[in-house]
Please model this.
Amino acid sequence: MLALNKGEILTIHNLRYMYYLNPKIKDLHRIFDQNERKDYLRLDLNENPGGLPQDVIDDVLKDITPQIVAQYPETLHFTEVLAKFLNTDIEHICLVNGSAEGIRYIIQAFTSPGGRIVGVVPSYFMFQVYSEMYGRSFVKVPYDEDLTMDVDKIINEITPDTELLILLNPNNPMGNCYTEDEFRRIYEAARVNEVTLLVDEAYHYFYPKTFIEYALKDKHVFVTRTFSKLFSMAGCRLGYVVGWPEGIKMVQKMCTPHNTNAFAMKFAEKIITTPSILEDLISKFKEGREYLIDNLYKHGYRHKGEAGNFLFIEVKTDAEKIVRRMKEEKGILIKSYPNVGDFGTCLRVSIGEKAYMEKFMNALLDLDR
Ligand SMILES: Cc1ncc(COP(=O)(O)O)c(C=O)c1O
Model:
């Protein structure tokens, strides 16, 4: 309502009509990537370059009926299958359209405008993007020079006015992980200060240690996971949040209606109910990683990052130039990454099965001289 002083007459000229745009969105820097990548060997976004075996895809497609396509997705059956896979019940799980969505809901629901969020950097960039989008204050805990993480530095930032602490297990991109003892200390500090703890386990399976039992047994701990990485389903968009039932209910309230894709659930069910598919994905990944690491050693390359599905590689010439020439001359997409300790700017390369690693290694030897 407009407050007028005595005697003041409101004329239409006093009103300012203006379209509204949230300044936080206006000023937000985001890259809207619509690059065509399908004709390249894609080692740039930590996907599985080979994907699921064609017979698995064909098998699942047989189950896709007109009714499944026409109907809004039903989530109960798949949530039960997933709960069984995780040894829990459906009250502890919220399905999301990729774990990035779950992360966003947790930030929206469990922090306030201007609220303090603590996270290590460098890390998955969306934590900072969402913090900025919603006007939260993101406090960065940097790695040490040698790329190790001093757990006390994290604990020191867990203050009573902190609302959310975000950890990655293992961390992307650095690949470091927390021991049980380190995690326990961080968790205790968060609990004492009543700080919600979010553990992003997107790279679980590439590194099997998990802290999911904290999210299943305790309150105010969430774990997010994805089907995009080892499960090779990035194109379908499926992730999930694990947490205490009341917390999960809050995340569910945030979800857009019918946010879980019906096809994604079909593929995910096939994978988690067929142990041989998962075993095959893991063994092909391990073979590819072993090949790449052996050959990097053999040719005098240093690498870092053991815990995810990617490696940092120190090059002998110019990383940026190699990234460019890989794309233009070899049809291979990789990324350069700045400030990786004493490597400086180096390559970040996703690991896939051996045939792809051979292609990358041969290209590297050709271009890096
Ligand atoms: C650490 C981390 N968390 C979450 C995600 C989001 O995964 P998605 O939204 O595909 O489930 C990614 C994707 O690269 C990631 O690297």
